[in-house]
Each structure stands twice: as C-alpha cells, then as structure tokens.
Write a structure and sequence with these properties.
- The protein is α+β, with helices and mostly antiparallel strands and about 110 residues long.
- The protein has a single domain, classed as Aspartate Aminotransferase, domain 1.
- The chain has a six-stranded antiparallel beta sheet, covered by helices on one side.
- It starts with a helix and ends in a 10-residue tail after the last helix.
- The mean pLDDT is about 90.
C-alpha cells in the first residue's frame, strides 16, 4: 500500500460534505484529491499533503506534525505535509482540509496538457 487508505477515506468523507464535484488521481505514489480541477489535498504514505495559501505557510509550520513539502528535494512554499499522528481526531483533520479548500477558491489551476 503506497498510501494510508483509512486516511484517504476520512479525507473523502470530509470533502464530500461541501464538495460533490471532485476527482481523485493517483500521483506521487499516493492519492490526490482535486477540487475544481485544482490539486487540493493528498494522502501520501502516512501523511497528508495540503495545498494552502503561501501567506499562511510560516504560521502553520508551527503546528504539530507539520513539515515542509520537499517531495523533489526542494521546499515548496504553499504545500505542507502533516504527519498522520497529528490527525488523530476529525477536528484536526478538518482544520487542514478547510485550509486547503479555502485556498482552492483562489488558487490557480495547473495548465492542462494537450
């Protein structure tokens, strides 16, 4: 198993409450949840990937279990990983998903491949 399926189910359940048009894509060895054709959150191994407003980046880095996303060896500001141990309640997981969904409203979509 490349990603935690239980965490993916929890994410799916929370997003479904407010967004019925989503897409799930397998990428980066995990599962990415696309909202409005934009990368929103993902589950990779035993952690959550969150796309958030880069303005909030420094503040959220102080949160329990949060670490920079350095998937390619380069830190990507606006993306963080959150360790599954810090997502042990629904409220904690909802916090991170809400950050991603709030940013999703204003985030730019990736250019579509032809």
């Amino acid at each position: 198993m490349a990603y935690n399926e239980k965490l993916a189910d929890r994410v799916r359940e929370i997003i479904a409450v407010t967004h019925n048009i989503t897409e799930e894509k397998k990428m980066f060895g995990g599962l990415c949840f696309m909202v409005n054709d934009k990368m929103c959150v993902g589950v990779e191994k035993e952690r959550l990937m969150v796309r958030l407003d880069p303005v909030k980046y420094d503040k959220v880095m102080e949160k329990e279990g949060c670490m920079p996303m350095d998937f390619t060896g380069k830190i990507m500001k606006g993306y963080v990983f959150v360790d599954i141990a810090a997502l042990n309640t629904k409220k904690k997981l909802e916090y991170w998903i809400k950050l991603a969904l709030d940013y999703n409203k204003i985030a730019k979509a990736s250019k579509k491949k032809k």
